[in-house]
Write a structure and sequence with these properties.
With about 160 residues, this protein is of the alpha/beta class. The chain contains 8 helices and 3 strands. It has a 3-stranded parallel beta sheet, with helices on both faces.
Amino acid sequence: MSTAPDLPSLHLLNTVFAGVTGHDLYFAEQLKAGIEQALADTGPALGAAGFAGAVQELQRRLGAGEEEDDAHGFAHWDAAQSPGAPDSLWSRQQIIDLLKRIAPYGEATLLITNLRAAFCPPGCRWTSRRLAAYREVLDSLSELAAARSRRHANLTVMVL
């Protein structure tokens, strides 16, 4: 069985590929192992952003059928690649654009990576100010997702 750090990636796979896995974590784990093996064959480990990119590419390739494309939307935002600070208006606009892109779908996943590292880079300590700013951004992302999604849509926001 998977360890605790694997659970977010398994949940991502289970959500995006629900039609393939049938919401079964065993099948999601097999799919995850295949993606990780393919990534290992192409080069060094890419982390959460590389895994999310691989999931998005696999969804594009497998979702060639119109029916599957209409079933689930997927968007990824990497906070480390954002030109502004994660709590800036620029970042908020990027999230709104992604939410608009996945709004037509009945089920959608918004994956946010490197948010913790954007607030507290490796080698730095979590101060009370950083932690408060991080929690404020998480709360505002939650409120923004709730306000910008359809009432009956099933939107999953994952922060890795």
